[in-house]
Design brief:
The chain is mostly helical and 54 residues long. The N and C termini lie far apart (39 Å). It has two helices and no strands. It is elongated, with a radius of gyration of 18 Å.
């Protein structure tokens, strides 16, 4: 990312408004529920699957 740190590029980047990622929201909510149910667990090394319900 040398372009991002080049002083010549100061003020040449724009950021769009954020978009809600509903899959990420569902994942976060599930992880929070898991932490509350299993406070001694270490969920950082778990693999979480997210799928869309039709």
């Amino acid at each position: 990312m040398s372009e991002a740190t080049d002083p010549e590029n100061e003020y040449k980047f724009v950021v769009d408004l954020p978009t809600t990622d509903f899959a990420a929201r569902a994942l976060h909510n599930a992880q929070e529920r898991y932490k509350k149910q299993y406070p001694e667990a270490t969920p950082h090394d778990l693999l979480w699957r997210v799928s869309k319900v039709d």
